[in-house]
């Protein structure tokens, strides 16, 4: 009997060995939550684009969708490199200090290459004069007179809302205007000439292509609209523009090639702090209001005065 049992056990062990090792039980597949994956890929938080509730103007809020994860880091770094040495919220006196250093750098090479002491002294005097002029030319938009910025940067500021601007130095050429609200830097407006072999090429499309390549993503096209939003402050045609947004800064590439008041073809590259853009409705309490045709005709008639007797006779004929 015992011998039969041992023979049976031995046969079972042999069968097991022939079948090979027993595989462990299969594990149920892990379920991934898309929301959690998105949060993990973006560093634990999700970015949302700032918006003021009206996208009919270039100041209507961050008009592009905020990128996430590595894309946001890459775009943010490239935009910050373009903004340097400025950062949002700087006071005007801090900006003046930066402009002073930029002027020092611009003149240092010229002064060093000049061995004539008299010429060197003249260059130093010219540099110091520019520093004083830039401070003196800071404009507060009180609405008392035409500032000139109406042509240089139309629709980019309002009157009687504690806004101001100063012209700065733009490395690489072109013009630069720095805008403040409550003496805090929130916008940089660069005008860049379009020339063959220039920084952004000789056309709007060439500029767009270069910037798309530099930023590593396509900007969002926003069509021209008339007029701009009322709270934006100036009732004017908002030109077509392309927008990039990194969660902190909004960049607009504005097509100025159709403007008749420009000396040459150019585009504007406008950097704005998204948080301020989203809060413009609160910051800008004094805004221009649209007038209907009847009120415009009445105002024109009041300005012209009553018709003269001779005019009435001519009309009867």
List the helices and strands and how they pair.
Blueprint: H1 2-19, H2 34-41, H3 69-83, H4 92-113, H5 117-136, E1 139-140, H6 149-152, E2 163-168, E3 175-181, E4 184-193, H7 204-215, E5 220-222, E6 241-245, E7 249-255, E8 266-273, H8 274-278, H9 280-283, H10 293-304, H11 309-316
Antiparallel strand pairs: 1-2, 2-3, 3-4, 4-8, 5-6, 6-7, 7-8
Helix pairs in contact: 4-5
Largest pleated sheet:
8 strands, antiparallel
Element order: H for helix, E for strand: HHHHHEHEEEHEEEEHHHH
N-end to C-end Cα span: 143 Å
Please mark out the parts with pLDDT under 50 across 5 or more consecutive residues, or reply none.
5-10, 15-72
Total number of beta strands: 8
Shape, per Cα inertia axes: globular
Spatial ordering of strands, largest sheet: 1-2-3-4-8-7-6-5
Structural classification: alpha+beta
Q: Roughly how much helix do the residues carry, as a percent range?
A: 40-55%
| Rg | 32 Å
Give an overview of the whole structure.
This protein is α+β, with helices and mostly antiparallel strands and 317 residues long. It has a domain at 69-91 and 137-283. It has eleven helices and eight strands. The protein has helices at 2-19, 34-41, 69-83, 92-113, 117-136, 149-152, 204-215, 274-278, 280-283, 293-304, 309-316, and strands at 139-140, 163-168, 175-181, 184-193, 220-222, 241-245, 249-255, 266-273. It has an eight-stranded antiparallel sheet. Strand 3 and strand 4 form a beta hairpin. Helix 4 runs antiparallel to helix 5. It is globular and about 60 Å long. The N and C termini lie far apart (143 Å). The model is unreliable at 5-10 and 15-72 (pLDDT under 50).
